[in-house]
Design a protein that fits this description.
The structure holds two protein chains of two kinds. Chain A is of the alpha/beta class. Helix content of chain A is 25%, strand content 25%. The longest helix of chain A is centred in the last third of the chain and has 21 residues. The chains are: A alpha/beta, B mainly alpha.
Chain lengths: 465, 70
């Protein structure tokens, strides 16, 4: 049921979820499927983005209003602007020495949840993790695309049938915890339509899942509590740090190769995607490469380089343009922080600084050159590198990651490998804010939903309420 | 009047030159040996294509009409 005229007490519910994007709704629906009663808060409405709430000020390479275009306050959250790409990180994407940080959970723990998450996003589970060898040192690993799933539309029926109670146009304005800080004891909510504020008490057996987006999660954990002191959930001082994006670089190169990539696409007649080549783990380790998907499109057998190689070698070569989706390494100085300005909820407005490291851009050039060297060595083709496109024209993908990072060390991370805020029994975070790294180049939405389903399983298995 | 270069000074000078050459050789990054193009050097033509010397010779005789080159 969607509640628009007030804020119910929390004691009727088994769990509280803040946010109805892919993370929040996935947790809420999985809990509801297991028979749990769920109360969810959404600061937006059916289609409205609330103008009186604060926007984030961007600094660095992603400046101005950049983050606001990817932090949407509506039922379904940021799925409203999702572009529909899904792929999984490889094992090396979760533990690559060149990145300097590893995930505390591996592919084995995530794979069953990627399989469950893919259909929720209207993707084929067999395609999102597809990979096949292409040539020594590089694999063919396409990135599938589907018409984007808007969670607020696709799952609206389930919400209206009363499976989950969603309070629309209602923001969370603060948390309370006992002196021991072992559990949340209350959450304060503000209803924008009526202006009413309500303090909802929580028991230590009642989990609260924070799923307010990569900026929103950090912003709430950075707010000073009533009476001052350390923000609730930020005892580590790590909330907001390690903000990451996936650098997107277009027309960074081209190649002429004796492989017709269409032949490798595993899903003829099963939807679209983009051909992509990735360096194998051994080559990545040797060269110090990290996540970089070299995405090949615009096949052209008549290109002069393809014709030259075909003529010289006596076999067909095909020319492709190359775009790159890549990884930026986490840095503590790339962060969400608070400004001095308060918004309608009384919370401090956030700002975000995110600066790409030169090494992140060099990684793209090194990946392209590794492909070029490999094609020369194997006499399989040639690569052209367009340096200006790499170093002067980098974009983001709207992937907001890393601001409440997951880790085993409570001093160096915000949540533990179960996505539970360190030290709290009933406080959890869902969304890409828990990513310790970008997970290679992989688009985050599939893993966001997978981690949410994994969290729901944990909450059910712990038998909360 | 200056003395001609003594045998000892000559030997010391030649030894120093040889030592410098040996140090330069030993300190050269492994990937920069001329027989092994590396990921940041490679063979690159003026348009950014990574090519072999043989490619260069053939393309010099009949240049590409590369419609992708900006």
């Amino acid at each position: 049921m969607i509640i628009t005229d007030g804020i119910p007490a929390a004691d009727r519910y088994d769990a509280v979820v803040i946010g109805t994007g892919p993370a929040g709704l996935s947790v809420a629906m999985a809990l509801a499927d297991a028979g749990r009663r769920v109360l969810a808060f959404e600061s937006g409405g059916h289609q409205q983005v609330r103008g009186e709430l604060s926007n984030t000020i961007g600094y660095g390479h992603f400046s101005g209003e950049y983050w606001n275009a990817h932090s949407i306050r509506t039922l379904g959250g940021t799925s409203a602007v999702w572009s529909g790409w899904c792929t999984t990180p490889r094992e090396i994407d979760l533990d690559n020495p060149a990145v300097g940080t590893r995930w505390p959970i591996g592919r084995r723990a995530l794979l069953p949840y990627w399989t469950k998450a893919a259909p929720m996003l209207d993707h084929d589970p067999s395609l999102v993790d597809f990979e096949t060898p292409l040539l020594e040192g590089f694999s063919y690993r396409p990135v599938p695309f589907r018409t984007p799933t808007h969670f607020g539309h696709k799952y609206l029926d389930r919400l209206q049938r009363g499976v989950i109670d969603v309070v629309a146009n209602c923001s969370v304005a603060g948390f309370e915890a006992g002196e021991s800080r072992r559990a949340l004891t209350a959450v304060e909510a503000l209803h924008h339509g009526t202006g009413a504020r309500r303090r909802l008490t929580l028991s230590d057996r009642q989990p609260l899942v924070l799923a307010a987006g990569g900026i929103g999660n950090a912003r709430l954990l950075l707010q000073p509590p009533r009476g001052g002191g350390v923000p609730i959930g930020n005892e580590s001082g790590q909330a907001g740090r390690f903000l990451m994006e996936h650098p997107h670089l277009y027309r960074v190169g081209e190649c002429a190769i004796d492989a017709e990539l269409d032949r490798y696409w595993p899903a003829k007649g099963k939807g679209g995607g983009v051909h992509a080549l990735v360096a194998d783990p051994a080559l990545s380790r040797t060269r110090g490469l990290y996540g970089c998907s070299l995405q090949c499109s615009r096949k052209n057998a008549a290109h002069p380089m393809a014709r030259f190689l075909s003529r010289e070698r006596g076999r067909p070569f095909f020319h492709y343009g190359i775009a790159a989706r890549s990884e930026m390494r986490p840095s503590a100085e790339n962060r969400v922080f608070l400004t001095a300005e308060r918004d309608a909820t009384g919370l401090y407005r956030a700002a975000a600084r995110c600066v790409l490291d030169a090494r992140d851009l060099l990684n793209v050039e090194m990946s392209l050159r590794a492909l070029g060297e490999t094609l020369i060595r194997l006499d399989r083709g040639r690569v052209r590198v367009n340096s200006d496109r790499i170093y002067k024209e980098t974009f983001g993908g709207g992937h907001i990651m890393g601001t409440t990072r997951m880790g085993e060390d409570p001093a160096a991370s915000v949540v533990d490998p179960d996505c539970r805020v360190h030290g709290y029994g009933n406080f959890f975070v869902a969304g890409s804010s828990v990513f310790p790294t970008g997970g290679g180049y992989a688009n985050p939405t599939l893993t966001i939903v997978a981690l949410a389903l994994r969290l729901a399983d944990l909450l059910v298995s712990e038998g909360r309420r | 009047m200056m003395e001609p270069l003594s045998r000892r000074a000559f030997v010391a000078g030649a030894g120093g030159t040889l030592a410098a050459a040996w140090i330069a050789s030993a300190c050269r990054p492994a990937g920069r040996r001329p027989d092994r193009p590396d990921a940041t050097a490679g063979y690159v033509d003026r348009d950014g294509w990574m090519l072999t010397p043989e490619d260069h010779e053939k393309l010099a005789a009949a240049p590409l009409q590369n419609d992708e080159t900006p």
